[in-house]
Amino acid sequence: MVTLEQKYCALLGVAQEKGQADLSKMKACFEVLALASAIDRACARRLAPYQLSEGKFIVLFLLQQMPQGGAPNELAERAGVTRGTITGLLDGLERDGYISRQQDATDRRRLIVRLSPQGEEVAAKLGEEHSRWIGSLFEGFSEEDFKVLSPLLNRVWKTLEEDDVI
Amino acid sequence: MVTLEQKYCALLGVAQEKGQADLSKMKACFEVLALASAIDRACARRLAPYQLSEGKFIVLFLLQQMPQGGAPNELAERAGVTRGTITGLLDGLERDGYISRQQDATDRRRLIVRLSPQGEEVAAKLGEEHSRWIGSLFEGFSEEDFKVLSPLLNRVWKTLEEDDVI
DNA sequence: GACATATAATTTGGCGCCTTATAATTTGAT
DNA sequence: ATCAAATTATAAGGCGCCAAATTATATGTC
Fold this sequence. Notes:
The structure is a homodimer.
Chain A: H1 4-7, H2 13-16, H3 20-47, H4 54-64, H5 72-79, H6 83-95, E1 99-103, E2 111-115, H7 117-137, H8 143-165
Antiparallel strand pairs in A: 1-2
Helix pairs in contact in A: 4-5, 4-7, 5-6
Chain B binds a DNA duplex through residues 41, 44, 53-56, 71-73, 81-89, 91-92, 107-111.
């Protein structure tokens, strides 16, 4: 089996010349990236039979929790993509009959996006399936493990946010 | 500031109904994904001025460690992308003068990809810069922290690999 | 009431990546 | 020696995503 470390060993040559500290940091970074990309791919494979990408799935998931519908910009923000992207995702979802777009009566710039009955059904089924799958990935993790993992990841996230502002 | 948890809180509604254990698992999963995607975006922004994507950068980086050049399929495997993808990345790198493709004398199916002088230069400069940046993301992490983080990430990775085989 | 400004959604153009199909070449079994 | 199978690289088509530009509508100010 290829470990995460092995997968990126080629990229670590440079760090090795710089001492243990940098090596550990680069390794950790690649581990996070490689794991996320593995999760993404597995996820994409799971969703492909439904013509859904991860982005579309998240939109369905979000809409499920907005029974009275939601605006594209709101969906974009919650899903973490741009408004331009959300337009494309909604196009696909509409084409496949999962959602409908409806003009807002009071502000004609606005749209209201709603799940179709079919969308409801798929969202419910996949939501259930998906959360079970995610659960299985972290099977065997204790609450203690999460208490350790979460703050570490969040520390990097925070650094990154500060970084970006500059 | 938006924390990783907040970012995905909307997605956690379902998990909340299923108890603490599942909630922690989904949270952790989203934290990994969100962090990786934040790193990817920041990385893309850093590389954009050089007309480089993360994929292209990794190819440059790999080539730097193959002084006698490398084959596309080898690069694809080490970079973790498909051969089809590597062709596109090499196209871009060749167009921008960072690499050259050369036919292998003994097997005419094969190519040898090499860095151009310009490619060497950029690879060296960016490699240095990039590893310093990654280091800065994990600034303040102790060796102890990595000893905890790494096995946790690798456990999920392992589960995922087993998953895929099935 | 007119005009600048803000906001909503979309369009456009681009890149990365994937999957599937194709073409060229080599290898291996018979 | 021949022909099927494997391997190499590429092409084609598609989706997701982004940034920047565009269009339509609303709002606030003078």
